[in-house]
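Lab notebook, bench 4. Still working through the backlog of constructs that have no structural model yet. Next entry is a single chain of 481 residues. Request: give me the structure tokens for it.
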Amino acid sequence: MVKQIIQYPVPLVLKDILKEKTRGELVVKGENFLKSLFFEDGHLIFAKTDVIEERLGEILFKIGKIDQPQFGEILKLVKSKTGSDRLGKILVQKKILSQRDLFFALLYQLRTIATSTFSLSTGEWKFIKKAPDVPEDSRFNIELPGIIAEGANRIGNFAYFKNKFLYLVPNIKAVPLEMADILSTYEMNFYKSLEAFDGMTCEQIMRQVDMSEDMFWKKIIFFHLLDIVEFIDTSVDEELDKNVEEIFGLYERIKSDKIDYYELLGAAKSATPNEIKDAYFNRAKRYHPDRIGGVPDPEIKEKANFVFAEMNKAYSTLGDENKRRDYDGRGYKEENIDDAVSENMRERAKMLYRKGKVLYTQKKYWEAASVLDESVALDKTKPAYFLLLGMCQMNIPSLKRMAEKHLQKVLESEPWNVDALVSLGQLFLSIDQVNRAEGFFRKAISFNPDHAIARKKLMEILGSKTDGKKKGFSFFGKSKK
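Model written out:
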């Protein structure tokens, strides 16, 4: 069956041949060209062309294996009947070319013909499944991943791929061992960084990465042609719908007192402390309000916030041995905060927090830290107070240790707090503790996959982890030799 290149580009045909280990002949033709590529078990074994620039004589001259007078002699041979078929053999016989030089020239020619098909935007192709009719002494055995690696850089028109993949989510697959050497360090780092964009479309990823649009598409298409990236349509997010439905169910059961803390966390009453913790984090990832931020109905977000707050109470109780024992015995009754902190103290703490927030936005970190330090002393129950205090202190070199303490305090009561996780990541990054910073950025992304700062910082870390620390290397730029 003949197909138009504009409807199904040739690179995708080569991807299919590689994946299915197909044998046969791929005929590609247009107004001014005709090429034939022959395959056996997914390998390119021979190619023919009528494009002058891709013929053997021109190739030999281009790569410097013959000079101008020899090139003229070859043109005469080509015009003669004698030289029409086995030009290479004649050149060897006349000692114009060595057998070794001929081999590499033919290899270069085959790769040139094959990679030239990547830049085609017009014409047609057909694939004939049959045993290739190629003499044994003319056969090569060129692996397609190398052709794809070279050809992907020649793709100039991305319209087909943009239209098809722009709003789809790239999902990375394992890189087969035989393809590991095909990817450069730059490409491998970018490939690995795609894990951090879990659930995001190509359009969303392009807004996050610091690289040109053309470079982005070249690499994404390259990965797809190697079959190490596939694309998923998430226009209908079934998992999100399921989570929203479950949040509604939990909300109704909590309101009607028909659920206990164990059921709320999805844990058995005989669960160990570690099992309680795992159950909490599993549900936190699914029901965190930020995970459903894209849902337009504000009622859903409101109910999600309520359910998540109740889950935190449940974890606070069941995660504490004494509170859990009391809860199991007679039902846990929360301590009334007003019994511990007077209303006046709470109001003053709130006032100081607001003042500290204004000072923080003005970048008056010392003054803000001083005000917020008093705020947390008056009311130790507000994670937001500790968070802002830590964010102020991390901007003061002598108080970074205190900043870590206060940000960790936030996570003790709100392990899912993305702002605290990102702040800790930035803090450790500022003191060159890259591995610890990476861990906090990864955890932040697990709760909020769309957090721009966490994604950007994580990609910078991944990009900096190159094996050779090559001079001039930039994760989303060009390597300088």
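Notes after review: The chain has three domains: 3-144, 238-334, 340-464. The first helix runs from residue 10 to 20. Flag for follow-up if needed.
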